[in-house]
From TrEMBL:
Family: Belongs to the LysR transcriptional regulatory family.
PROSITE patterns: HTH_LYSR
Lineage of producing organism: Bacteria, Pseudomonadati, Pseudomonadota, Alphaproteobacteria, Acetobacterales
Protein name: LysR family transcriptional regulator
Alphabetic keyword roster: DNA-binding, Transcription, Transcription regulation
Amino acid sequence: MLFLPPGLDPDLLRSFVLIAEGGSVTRAAQRVGRTQSAVSMQMRRLEDALGQPLLLRGRGGFSLTPHGSWLLDRARPLLAMHDEILANFRSPDITGHVRLGTPDDYVLVWLPEILARFAETHPAVEMEVICAPSSELLQRLEHGELDLTLFSAGNGREQDSTILWRGPLYWVGSSAHAVHRMSPLRLSLAQPSCVWRKAATTALEEAGIPWRVTYSSSSQMGTHAVVLAGLAITVGLAAPLQAGLRVLDESDGLPPLPEFEIALAAGSDTPVARALEEHIIGSFRHEPGGLPDRGG
């Protein structure tokens, strides 16, 4: 009798790919909905099945062995085909189109993993992401142009929204220029209604530091471009900062900035909008600084 060799469990391959791409068992465990120890055991099972080490633990996280690199190149298309087969034969629970608003400051920090996980569990949902300042996003939500939006708390609507995250705001300057030593201090900020702008100018006023807004932009890319040129400083999140930018603090002669909050407001009660809302809330609870659901 001919015995076929046992196949590779796709769940083991999926966890392996997530660790390889993110360098972290913790993040991989969050993505697959398992504990860290369970994902670590999956990796031991996979290495035992293949008879080769695949991952090396280092000070900066995990790296791939030569066998791990070979497997990663082949596991990605294999999993894509596996998921396509399942999606083709399974009738999706939720279908439709959902429009999500977000300030561009949050896009690269949180949304890639959040939206990727949602797409994995809801393959029949079409997502549209609109980036704009918080005040504009809330207006578009009121006008029915968005189903959900992330926004910086302090722009109104907090009473019927969910506070997702609280964390520090930072001064951001050029690594190559000392524009933060100039007087009056030159600032590159968003429109006057922006809560980050208000926090920055209020802190400077209270510290008695002369300032003027010399550049305005509705996008983070715009404010950062001016800072990289050594023409002003701005405010924002500490990470990720592109090369040429650094966080400035009291040692640079600048006053501390207050913490701020990220909120989520819903303008639609469709099944797909509710599913995305619950997914975003649950995802932020696992982030450092994430808050329990206390909002509307």
